[in-house]
Design goal:
The protein is mainly β. The chain has one helix and eleven strands; from the N terminus they run H-E-E-E-E-E-E-E-E-E-E-E.
Length: 154
């Protein structure tokens, strides 16, 4: 099993509703993946009697970037628009276009607020709420996971 195979498994799991996955291959490789708090992939070599050394690819958890932690005493009053899928966040429809929304903009339910590209498909993300954008939680072209907060609405 090589890096591409492991990456494909990670992408497939990210796009599925599975919360946890554990696979043990005949070669002795065991892969465990779990969605939620900590994002990690563990690849454990199984002890195999072999005459030659065996190399096992190891995938290190990707360091999360783009999620901005902000202390906000009124945060409980905010509604959050979360990413409905794994993909790449785009604030505008094209690099040379203005962003769909900016902090301070008033938005209405059903208004397009961003695009999340997943598997070469551009998915317009619409607001589920009426209100005012108080925070944009990710940067343009950041990779987002399912459930990643994108916008805070007041």
């Amino acid at each position: 099993m090589d890096y591409k195979d492991i990456k494909k498994l990670m992408d497939d799991m990210g796009n599925s509703k599975l919360e946890e996955l554990e696979i043990e291959f005949p070669e002795g490789i065991k892969i465990s993946m779990k969605k939620g708090g900590k994002k990690e992939v563990i690849v454990e070599p199984h002890v195999i009697e072999a005459s030659a050394p065996m190399s096992v690819p190891v995938v290190q958890p990707k360091e999360e970037t783009g999620i901005v932690a902000v202390e906000n005493k009124n945060e409980e009053n905010c509604k959050i628009i979360k990413s409905p899928m794994v993909g790449t966040f785009y604030a505008s429809s094209a690099p040379d276009k203005d962003p769909f929304v900016k902090v301070g903009d008033r938005i209405s339910k059903g208004q397009v607020v961003c695009i999340v590209e997943a598997m070469k498909l551009m998915n317009e993300i619409e607001s589920e709420f009426d209100g005012e954008i108080v925070e944009i939680c990710v940067k343009n072209e950041d990779v987002v996971e399912y459930g990643t907060p994108l916008f805070k609405i007041k």
